[in-house]
Amino acid sequence: INTGYINRDIFTPNDERLLGIVNVCKAGKKKKNCFLCATVTTERPVQVKVVKVKKSDKGDFYKRQQTWELRDLTEVDAKDASKENPEFDLHFEKVYRWVASSTAEKNSFISCIWKLNQRYLRKKVEFVNVSSQLLEESVPSGESQSVAGGDEDALDEYQELSTREEQDIESMMVTCEYAISNAEAFAEKLFKELQVLDGANIQSIMASEKQVNILMQLLDEALGEVDTIEGKLSSYEEMLQSVKEQMDQISQSNRLIQISNTNNGKLLDEIQFLVNYMDLSKGHIRALQEGDLTSPKGIEACINASEALLQCMNVALRPGHEKLMAVNQQQLLFAELRDTFARRLTNHLNNVFVHQGHDQSSTLSQHTAELTLPKHSPLHRDLLRYAKLMEWLKNTHREKYEGLSRTYVEYMSKLYEREIKEFFEVAKIKMAGTSKDPKGKFGKRYDSHVKLNMNYACLHGSSGKLTGSTSSLNKLTVQGSNSRRSQSSSLLDMGNMSASDLDVADRTKFDKIFEQVLSELEPLCLAEQDFISKFFKLQQHLTVPEAEDFDGSLPSKKPPQAEHKHSLSSEKDIVRLMMNKIFQSIETELNSLIALGDKIDSFHSLYMLVKMSHHVWTAENVDPASYLSTTLGNVLVTVKRNFDKCIVSSAFFVVVVDITKFKSG
């Protein structure tokens, strides 16, 4: 194998060295010789490669055909370790099968691969069917690894001449023309010149002995100065050491002073926080203990004091504040002031509720003569001054707040019950006065005539819609009567009177009385509902009991299961329940009044239906869930039922009259 040409033409220009080569051909194919070469790069880091080289068909030169990195090699298979076999496999990204020109070349190449792997890669490449003796011989004990019969370390130590060195050698050889023809004479001449140079160097050194002595003397003096400086430096170091210790002490003192100042600043902040947020002025304490709850100024002072107390009690204490004795004492003082003021406020408002219930009873006689209800706006105006105090009581003393609500509902329900009862008594007396002879000789004719007129008015569409004024209803009645006059002249002759002459005046008076009753009840209920919402501060969603369990107070604490079972959605439900308790007699009295009006004249049900419908519609526009809207809606159902009964009975009466007329004809 001509390795010199291959190395010169292919590897040397690429800074590579050829370390192992084998002449191979692919197994199982037509014999085409090529070479597998193991090379390393001359530059660091060293790269080890396996290169496939093929001789060109057109000339005597070689070219690189394929290259593999040795680190990609995973397995070397020598096929048979005991017999001579030139075949072997190399496992890269795939298996390459080769046949060497001889077994010796194969073994030499495999040994080279093993050495390169051990020297540069330290990679565990599996060598299969390779004689262990071949691998052991490749690494002699105590010697460096050799590659392809050459010493690798010797190759590593070889250094090529630089360009300048080559030029110097060439110039020297030019001056000595016989350097190439007579190397011994050239070497002898060089040796003599070297001796001359050595002698000159020695003489130069001896001539500079005096200067050397002077230099040594200067060095001795310099060493003395160095010793002196070292002594001074040592003394300075001792002084600096003492200064350092003092500075450390000063620094430690400053650090302690800074910590002390920081702690004092934090302590001052904590004290200022407690003083600013947990200090109640003497004026506020005096207002809470003995403030006047009857005068406007006294009430305003109590409101300000209660708000300040609530802020002090609700302040968010920082960690550790609860362990301070002063904080505990302030909290005890706040709790005592809260209880004292809550007790004073509760007693005062209870007395106001009780006195109001008794005082209003004396004014009822003034409204007996006329059909009006007493106005409670002065009471509401006076009590609304305490609304903020009620809110404070609601947030601080829930039990006393609920007790006040029960007391208010209890006394006001009694007061309203008396007022409403007397009001409806007057209304009933006035209604009874509208009927001239409800039980006399014209009673039966009166009722039958009314039913007949209503029947014709309804059946023939002359009555129109159920809404309208009183005059329109009267006109409808007369028109219904006139439209059927020719068909029921015998019935009209039985009474010897006209319906318009007999009924219109009484019905108009009844309509005015019923409208007066509703007009008096509506502002009364709305004013009371508005007062309850404002006075008791029912603006939040709360848990309340069901209507049958309501005793006039806000809901008390119950087990979670009961609280979930009896919960309502909003404060409107609470207000409506309180209104039901206070005005529990309104619906009963209205039904009694409606029954009386229907008994006097069944045609009154039409008037009441129109009025009730109008007032229900008005109340629903104001608040669909209010007590007034609910109560009037229930009463409207009763009025509608009475009207339906009137229509049915009238229709039945007309049928009977027609049958009688038919038989008599």
Automatic annotation (TrEMBL):
Q: Can you tell me which residues the record assigns to a coiled coil?
A: 219-253
Query: What InterPro entries does the record tag this protein with?
Result: Sec3-PIP2_bind, Sec3_C, Sec3_CC
- Gene Ontology BP term (one): exocytosis
> Could you name the Gene Ontology cellular component terms for this entry?
exocyst; Flemming body; perinuclear region of cytoplasm; plasma membrane
Q: Which domain of life is it from?
A: Eukaryota
| Gene3D superfamilies per record | 2.30.29.90
State the residue spans of region: Disordered: 548-568
Q: Which Pfam families match?
A: Sec3-PIP2_bind, Sec3_C-term, Sec3_CC
Q: What is its main location?
A: membrane
Q: Which UniProt keywords apply?
A: Cell membrane, Coiled coil, Cytoplasm, Exocytosis, Membrane, Phosphoprotein, Protein transport, Transport
Q: What Gene Ontology molecular function terms does this protein carry?
A: phosphatidylinositol-4,5-bisphosphate binding
Give the matching SMART domains: Sec3-PIP2_bind
What sections of the protein cross the membrane? none
Localization, per the record, is:
Cell membrane; Cytoplasm, Perinuclear region; Midbody, Midbody ring
Which stretches make up the Exocyst complex component Sec3 PIP2-binding N-terminal domain? 29-120
Q: What does this protein do?
A: Component of the exocyst complex involved in the docking of exocytic vesicles with fusion sites on the plasma membrane.
On subunit structure and binding partners, the annotation says: The exocyst complex is composed of EXOC1, EXOC2, EXOC3, EXOC4, EXOC5, EXOC6, EXOC7 and EXOC8. Interacts with EEF1A1. Interacts with SLC6A9; interaction increases the transporter capacity of SLC6A9 probably by promoting its insertion into the cell membrane.
The family note in this entry says: Belongs to the SEC3 family.
The name of this protein is Exocyst complex component 1
Q: Which organism is it from?
A: Astatotilapia calliptera
Q: What is the lineage of its organism?
A: Eukaryota, Metazoa, Chordata, Craniata, Vertebrata
Q: Which gene encodes it?
A: EXOC1
